[in-house]
Amino acid sequence: MATATVTRPSLHIAPRLRRAGLGIWVVLVYAFLLAPVVVVVLASLSTTSYLTVPPEGITLRWFFEVLEDPGYVDAILFSLVLALIATAGSLLLGTAAAYALLRRAVPGGEAISALLMAPLVFPGVVVGVALLQFYSLIGLSATFAGLAFAHMVITIPYVVRAILASLAGTDSNLEDAACVLGANRLVAFAKVTLPLIRPGVVAGGLFSFIVSFDNVPVSIFLLGVRQTTLPVKIFTAIEYGVDPTIAAVSTMLIIVTGLFLIVAERWIGFHRFI
Amino acid sequence: MTRLLGHLRRTGLGLLSPSLLLLLLVFLIPVAIMVPLSFRPYLPGQGIGEGWTLANYTKLFTDAYYYEIVGRTIFLGLAVTLLTLVIGYPLAYFLARSRSRWRHWLTILVVFPLLLNLVVRTFGWMTLLANRGVINLALQDLGWIEQPIRLMFNFTGLLIGLTHIFLPFMVLVLIGVIQNIDRDLEDAAKVLGANWGTTFLKVTLPLSLPGIVSGSILVFVLSISALVTPRLLGGPTYKVMSTLIYDQFLQLLDWPAGSAMALMLTLIVLVLVFLSGVIARRFGMQGSVAQG
Questions:
Q1: Which residues 186-245 in chain B show a CB within 8 A of chain A?
Q2: What is the ipTM of this complex?
Q3: How far apart are the C-alpha atoms of B253 and A220, rounded to whole Å?
Q4: How many domains are there within chain A?
Q5: Is the domain of A26 the same as that of A162?
Q6: What's the alpha-carbon Rg for chain A, to the nearest Å?
Q7: Could you tell me if A157 and A219 lie in one domain?
Q8: What pLDDT does residue A244 have?
Q9: Is residue B88 assigned to a domain?
Q10: Is the minimum CB–CB distance between A140 and chain B shorter than 8 Å?
């Protein structure tokens, strides 16, 4: 009868095994999530002119090639300017919209907020082709303004969502008190409410900047012949063939994104806004 | 005039009008304009013809080339959804129940790939999956295979790439619901004699169902809409709906057919998002798909 007692799992071992199993699973999933990131970083360091992982030798040559390539530098600057303008626009419009939705009796408020959020789930490629047609009808084809407006549309939901989350936790009486004490509405908002919702503004701005900077499906249909954003440049470069400069510029994006996220988490507790 | 201004201020429409104007001009009208275009005939070499036709829609269901792509897109979306759910649930459970002080940073580590440029992540998968990529070379070095296995430009490549891209979305939605499940309910089930498996199947899983549904709809909707990953991992030949739309607009210049397909994709997405909203309201959940 010894076998019966042996095969019966002990009450103390089973939970421990389960925890270990869950732990292993978690580690494997993180490995899956981070594998492509690690591979790109490794590939960018190889001395070979083709991609090899693990790298053969270590060099920073490809990073210098990226920084000396006017094509890449122009694309980086173009993307930065576009993302800054789009973010400034959507912060302005999105904050006003979120404020109105929460603090005013907006008729059809639910429908309006659904509309503001719609670009979040709307296929980017559809927005891209729709604007390609529309801009060619109204003469905005391949213009920077057209591209910037498109980026505001796709970034505004992130701002509205972050500001709504922040604003919901503030007391509207504070602003009214400031008004009673003689401040006008704008001053009361700027001096009382804005400091309170600062984390939401920062989170919305960061999301907006990243979404604009990363976008391909909308940008690719709207760019002019001589214009390119960084991700579109990498995207088209890959279609022509992969090389270590692509890995190097990708690694730069990985490092910047990582730093961005660490700073954002320390600064405003970014995980609360995800 | 002052009455109008007063009205705009009270109702908040004054503050909302800039955003609404932007969305109207740069989103709603452009999408609406695709509707008439999708009923136009396309004449090869000449462009968009006169008159009206249903052909752009009927061929989505009758032309084998098109319905294969539509079917493939939907099947791929379902497979990605299922895979992210199976892979992501245990991780979400771990993160939701962890009391570790590293928890926030571990969550941030799930968000990191999400914020990392999509082209970069896909490029990483190309480096791993190519015929002379990391995986194939490693397997050959180990002597497990002689010829490289095709992991790219086919269903496998798209499945792996898209699962990776959308896993964080699923995990974040699931963390949200699992966190809100009262631990006492699980403990009560155990006190009443249920073992771990029964507790999970009868308590935890049913209570996380709203999150499973809205996470699944979100991942499905995003998978069938994705352009960059299918384009790079599928190459120019292995197509899904979004990459076909891309080709029709930029290469074949058949805008009417491209519009019909784009509207079809939009219709599927909108119906599912609407359903997700209904389900979210029914279960009194805060975060529906539309709210992210």
A1: 196, 218, 221-222, 224-225, 227-228, 231-232, 242, 245
A2: 0.89
A3: 15
A4: 2
A5: no
A6: 25
A7: yes
A8: 87
A9: yes
A10: no
